[in-house]
Amino acid sequence: MYENIVLTESTYYILLALFCPQHGYGIMQQVEELSKGRVRLAAGTLYGALNSMVEKKWIIQLPVEDGSRKKNYRITEFGLRVLTNEIERLRELVSNGDAVIGGKKNG
Amino acid sequence: MAERMTQYKWFWVWDFEKQERWLNGMAENGCVLAGVGWCRYTFEKCEPGEYTVRLEMCDRDENYISFMEETGAEYVGRFMRWHFFRKKSEYGQFDLFSDLDSRISHLRRIHQMLWMLGIINVGIGIVNLFMGVYSTGNAFVAAGNLLVATVLMYGVGRIKGKMEYLENERKLRE
Fold it and tell me: Which of B69, B75, B86, B102 to mutate against chain A (most A CBs within 10 Å)?
């Protein structure tokens, strides 16, 4: 059912960041940090992705704490399965790439 | 208090990127967007390059605005379904979209809106065209509707072109 889901880079990193509860801006910072500044999620992209993933039940929105407007999100069981499947798939991609190219850069 | 000035300028909907470039050019020259209206842009003085301005067409609500504010952006205002944001450069790079998917879906929203308005104008135009047989007033309205519809459909084509370009890219990359 979820074996063949190929995640986009944004989706992958958002799910990874939501392994622990996190709010929107926190996700952006964490993803930038994890990717050493390579991946910068833009706010509109992130907002849209969060809403679609809540709809798909890959993540849930946690109850808003009193006096705070920040919404926290966390990955669901299902989302975690999607993510671990993706990690498995990425591993395959890398190992095949290494096997063929031999891990050499620039041929 | 900050000095304010107002400029009137017309942009076609399909030139929204040009509009954004113009607003950022103003910001680079020390005038940052502070308010919007019908072809009307209000600016206030800022340090040259202090802000980046972004605009987007969406139906998003106050949740989205507070989400944006959480990331350090300021909400300038909206005109119809166009929302304008600005962010201080010192808080980091400011973009609304960071992948092809979200850029495509933004274009799709604009495309749908233009298409819908176009169809409505064609519909009303045809009704008026038939009624124009009996009254010249209706004939004029029909001509107006069909003219507006033509412009809107031209816009649909322009946005569709941009969308198709990105969709082709999307086949190969994110």
Answer: B102
